[in-house]
Amino acid sequence: MRHNAVVIELGSEDSAVMRCALEAARLYFRTRGQSGGNWGKPNRGVYMYRAGRALEDGDSSPPCMADAYRCMGNVARAALCAIARHLRLRDVFNHLLDDTPLPANEASSSVLVAAYSHSNLQNGKGAIGGWKLSTNNEVEKGLLTLIASDHSGLQVCDPNSRWYLADGGSGPGDLLLLTGKALSHATAGLRPAASYRAASDYSSGTITSGRTSLAFRLMPQSNAILDCSPITAAGHVIPQSYVPISVSQFMDDLSAEEDMVCNRSDGTYETPSNLNGEPSLRSILSDPLSGVFLEDAVVVSCGHSFGGLMLRKVIEMSRCSLCNIDIESGPLIPNIALRAAAAAVKHEDDRRLFHNAALRKRRKEVGEHTFTLKRLNRENGDVAGEGDSQLHHRGVQYPFSVNEKVMIKGNRRTPEKFVGREAVITSQCLNGWYLLKVLGTGESVRLQYRSLRKISSSQATEDRCQQQTIVQNGS
């Protein structure tokens, strides 16, 4: 990977999907522009696609967006795994990503942006997020960004502040990968975010036919935690400033650096990176040197509060680092309010860390139980086929369907009189519970799926034969 950007050559099938999606997006924006659907402006357009999000009434989507999202999502996850292996890590980014497949009625955190821009536009959003390539330096906020375009035109900055054409020679079926700030924080700066801009020949109008692009942003979940402890465990030395932080808070801290153009009152345009950003709550409640929360904050004679390593430095210099006033030697007064606020925010961060760890543990247990359940079903004689696919789609908690005949295998909470009896499922309850009717006695009982077992096809055939024999003998 050269300066945190690389061109990925796709296989023939994936390359065909990307070319089809680019052409479909171009026709979509041109058609909407000619029909007045794109605000009457046929020379620009942008559409954002999220998996799992339903279209609103009257809304339409460019064709092939779902296929392009799936293709680019698989490539982005594979690239993230390759970066982890290069850093001697293993599966450290999986907890940051959306579940696959997505739960019902849940939209994805990652987004696919289709954009079309004509070269004669002058002001607009950035190359990835909106309508026109920008000649200002831009940095992505997510983990990774994949860009497919019908024309090259993106430059990336190297460590010597020299710009080079990153997607030169690439075709519509190739992808340009850029690293983002979330990945930079998760890797403690070992994979810095790539800085990019538009090539000068594009901004000057060399490409007269316009530019169509698809950009896939691999974003972490908002409730996840960016934690650098696996980097330390792998033997890397990281600065103390890289502390665990929630994704939502991290994105809020980057709001001042968001790659969009702000319209000022005087009619000129200026990027937010040139404006004064407000400090975040976490930065106010943390020691700027060590990054730890100010749970030992004290007030010095000038009125400012310090704690941790900065307090030690201020005492050694006998001068306030904020107002540059000499401080008096004497007893330090604890800042009770600041300590309480820092402790509260730290407690919330710890709670989120614990919640995510518990969530990962539950997902692992569910996965192991799914494997065990399928193995037991195979041992019980279940035939792999349509039933297995339905089991996969229904999930672990509902492996049986209504009116299905099952065997009560029971557990320590199941009454002994029901163990070993056959029953028919009459209804499905919450959290994997079923209401059953016991055959023979007609009693109703409510049991969880763990207490039930499928009846194999061979066993069901034997039962039917026995019933027919009993009927014949009775007649």
From TrEMBL:
Domain PUB 62/63 C-terminal, first and last residues per copy: 396-454
PANTHER family named among the record's database cross-references: RING_U-BOX SUPERFAMILY PROTEIN, U-BOX DOMAIN-CONTAINING PROTEIN 62-RELATED
Name of the protein in question: PUB 62/63 C-terminal domain-containing protein
Originating organism: Coptis chinensis
